[in-house]
Amino acid sequence: MVEVKLGNPRDAAGVSREADSPRSSLIAHFGAGQPLRLDAGIELEPFQIAYKTYGTLNAERSNAVLICHALTGDHHVASVHPVTGKSGWWETMVGPGKPIDTERYFVICPNVVGACMGTTGPASFNPKTGKPWGLDFPVITVRDMVRAQAMLLDHLGIATLFSVAGGSMGGMQVLQWAASYPERVFSALPIACSTRHSAQNIAFHEVGRQAVMADPEWRQGRYLLEGANPRRGLAVARMGAHITYLSDAALHRKFGRKFQDRENPTFSFDADFEVESYLRHQGISFVERFDANSYLYLTRAMDYFDLAADCGGVLASAFKDAKTRFCVVSFTSDWLFPTSDSRAIVHALNAAGARVSFAEIVTDKGHDAFLLDEPELFAIVRGFLDGAGKARGLKVGG
Amino acid sequence: MVEVKLGNPRDAAGVSREADSPRSSLIAHFGAGQPLRLDAGIELEPFQIAYKTYGTLNAERSNAVLICHALTGDHHVASVHPVTGKSGWWETMVGPGKPIDTERYFVICPNVVGACMGTTGPASFNPKTGKPWGLDFPVITVRDMVRAQAMLLDHLGIATLFSVAGGSMGGMQVLQWAASYPERVFSALPIACSTRHSAQNIAFHEVGRQAVMADPEWRQGRYLLEGANPRRGLAVARMGAHITYLSDAALHRKFGRKFQDRENPTFSFDADFEVESYLRHQGISFVERFDANSYLYLTRAMDYFDLAADCGGVLASAFKDAKTRFCVVSFTSDWLFPTSDSRAIVHALNAAGARVSFAEIVTDKGHDAFLLDEPELFAIVRGFLDGAGKARGLKVGG
Question: What is the pTM of this model?
Fold first, then answer.
């Protein structure tokens, strides 16, 4: 091993250590002869997948639910995050008695390939060089993420998923699962997502990437090696992205034009408005837990996502002969993945003859509604899984 | 004068020189005893206003039309830009035979206070220190911009404007003109604007400012003094803002998911998609002609804009007893200043008993539609000014 100079442990190196030795996580190692075959034409070998499980796999191995996380999410879906100490990102949805009920289902949530919380990604050490991968890490796709997850299921001895669920980039993985491994997916819950990233969404991602790469601390992607950390660039990227996760109405309701701790403007560039202070906090807290290069790789994977393009331009072909039961969910105020995107999924599924239900939930909370307290979403997910469970012959308690 | 080290002449210093000695511009100097009284409680003295005029002022001095420019616009409304060599930004609207017909009207367009094209702003030299103002320049408001423009009209001996017109930040100035100097405004054309900046818009501006300030080349605002230039930060800010000027539909129509000069993804962070390449170009070309600190000041002025707040929270009070004829225009796909904002203007004008017409133009071009080839907009502006001209008793040709 070559000795590597690392930065402030609270900075990038902290993220880096989590990338290789994730706390509070299970790890599946894939060594020589078990490469992940990437869309870029490269074989990633060795690699590892960090994951969490909740609940118990039943004797028939028929109650497994795979949760796919979003761009900045991770596998700590329903338990404390080892870096931030905060609750899991979907504790409202996943847990004992929750809509995705861990007393009924065996929940598996893997960290995606390219991320920074224990599954191999650009912040991981490349054992061939003894240095962090950085930009030498191959560019990955949503299909690659799903291919790795299928290897994890093989490793766990799970042939078929009772369900696969996720929102945003997680929803893209759900759709990719249904397209790549239809025989392994009994039911699927793609939430607030699309079969392809729009030009506007690519544009927002590109601004975020440019913000990271404009930071001299990024060092052409070699910041972990050089003891640097592009905190400011990544924070700007997060701030911009965060706006797209909310809605005009939600921001108006929550902040309006309220001043921060004062009555009148300061006539300065301080965070006069509450919304400015809130956004700055979002940026600062994000960089404590996320790797800048991972942000580049995962946004890129979302941009590349285009299920129809993989099937000669005909989206319905992606779901041909699908036996999977689908429940597609969108939110009225989601302008990142608007309802029209979800309708396109539903039309393609209809054209493919698939069994599909669709719910558009009225809310002003924007894209992030899938992560928030949305009783209608909870009721829909619970009802859909109940119905699928009956069809599958699942017994309560596994 | 203290000697000042300036940067690369093609960089910030080029903008800086234009800030003090604008080419192809008229300049009104306001010296001792003629201060601009700012909302921040400061008197700016001396200061100058760079402006352009087109057409001829008639004998009655009754055919003057003031054009107010947007955030990154300037006074080169209908003639070649001295830095970029490109056509004026509103040549489709202003000129001989155009909707704002310079054969009928005497058009005046001043560069706003705080900008960088010849009117005093943060890139200008502060004669009291012999150095560029930088962040020592006082934070200004839209009302300050309009107050300075009123001083320019006094300087030109024009008591009353036949009309005042502008889009976006220009539209804010139009509204402020009608509120601050109702007796001086015969007709007003606020386009694609609002009486107050929304939380979401403040949020987008804050991201842009943070992108600039995150660039180490910004040097706490002292880049002109230190021979630096926060090009990358300003380019990122512009890229993000530019998305908000367009629409999802326009980006889809124009770029979709088309690759740039290739058939397949490169699996890299190059500008694979046309929309990425387009955005990068927008960012790079912007920094050639704009000052980073000016960007901070002008976005701040827009954020502070809130006509109702200046009138005890009652918007209609801002237009009390207005004799001005209004034509309010919005665009269906403008999500920065949506039609609901324009309707709020119309409701307030109705409540104030003002004469107002309102047009919502159907287009997918987004906020920037006011700058583009929109025949319906041209017809509306021409018709509105014709009608106002008859009421004003204007003769063709002045």
Answer: 0.95
User: Tens digit of pLDDT for each residue in B162-199?
Assistant: 999 999 999 999 999 999 999 999 999 999 999 999 99
Q: Does B192 share its domain with B207?
A: no
- CB neighbourhood size of A79 (10 A): 17
Range of the domain at B275: 202-298
Report the residue of chain A nearest B230, measured CA to CA. A214
DSSP letter assigned to residue B184: G
pLDDT of residue B3: 31
Q: Are residues B98 and B219 in the same domain?
A: no
What confidence tens digit (pLDDT) does each residue in B30-68 have? 999 999 999 999 999 999 999 999 999 999 999 999 999
A207 belongs to a structural domain: no
What is the secondary structure of B87-120 as a DSSP string?
Answer: PPTTTTTEETTSSEETTT-EEEEEPPTT-SSSSS
* Sequence-distant (≥ 6) Cβ neighbours of residue A261 within 8 angstroms: none
Residue B87 lies in a domain: yes
Q: Which of B11, B108, B3, B6 is nearest to B54 (CA)?
A: B108
**Bridge partner list, A259:** A273
Same domain, B220 and B326: no
Provide the CB-side half-sphere exposure for A237 (13 A, CA). Answer: 29
Angle between helices A231-245 and B199-214 (to 10 degrees): 170
Q: Is B125 helix (H, G, I), strand (E, B) or coil?
A: strand
Euclidean distance between CA atoms B301 and B294, whole angstroms? 10
> Tokens representing B8?
């690369």
* H helices, E strands: number in chain A: 11, 14
Taking contacts as CB-CB distances below 8 angstroms, the residues of chain A near B232 are 210, 214
Q: Is residue A38 part of a domain?
A: yes
Nearest-CA residue of chain B relative to A337? B248
Counting one residue from A and one from B, how many pairs have CB atoms under 8 Å apart?
159
